[in-house]
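In this supplementary section we document a worked example of the pipeline. Step one takes a protein sequence of length 289 as its only input; no multiple sequence alignment statistics are reported here. Step two produces a three-dimensional model, which step three serialises into structure tokens for compact storage. The input and output of this example are shown verbatim.
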Amino acid sequence: MRYYRTKRDDTVSLIAQEGETAYDLTATEKSPDSFMDLAAAASLADTTVDDIARPLTEEAPTVDLADVREHLIRPIDPDEVWGAGVTYAISQESREGEGGLEEAYIGAYEGERPEVYFKATPTRTVGPGDNVGIRGDSDWDVPEPEFTTILHDGDIVGYTVGNDMCSRDIERENLLYLPQSKIYDKSCAIGPCVVTEETIGDPHDVEMTLTIERDGDVAFEESTSTSEMVRTVDELAEFFRRYNHVPESTALLTGTSIIPPDDFTLEEGDHISIEIENVGTLENTVEQL
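The serialised model returned by step three reads:
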């Protein structure tokens, strides 16, 4: 199933979609208003999120899917957002020729320990239809489309689309500047929904497409598959949990698979679309901060 959140006036609703039918789960007697409510209940009952949600659909009113998409907000409010890097060959290859940085990235790509890092707080993370930001002190900015896992108490319970915005020139200048290139206002987007294992199928075999439009024309477009990952989502989640205080809800981005060429940089007003098979499309507009 797919799980969305909508907001009309001050009312937030949790919407479950099965097939072509959408149900307002918040309008039921148990009135869950977030995917993590369902995940917590599933954990206590030792069952799946979908098994918790399906009985609720029997009493939930149906809603129009087109109307749902017009009122989307961020599908969850994660306590923390983390990222993983150099999990695809193209990510490692894009760093070749970067002097001292090259050795670090090759080591992370080939080593037993993956790169796992803190990416964002909820206040730095936006949802579908919101603006993503590019820094005012950066001249080379790109989106990084990422298959994203949703964790409850450290365990994978769902999947969504993520955009890990990055200031490449700051990152390339000095590896110690990596946090500044990654962590800033509106530097991350997730959405449009969360899907479960039943819906995603094999998480290591889904197609992903990045499209960037400028002034109505396609400025960049490329596709790939999570089958190109050299790490598994379970492996990344396991390293995230190691010796770490794990919050109740976490979004873990699993690495970039598509990188625009070095002569491309985002501009204010660019429209970014990231489509992931069996999940949906996350759309955001670029804002100069």
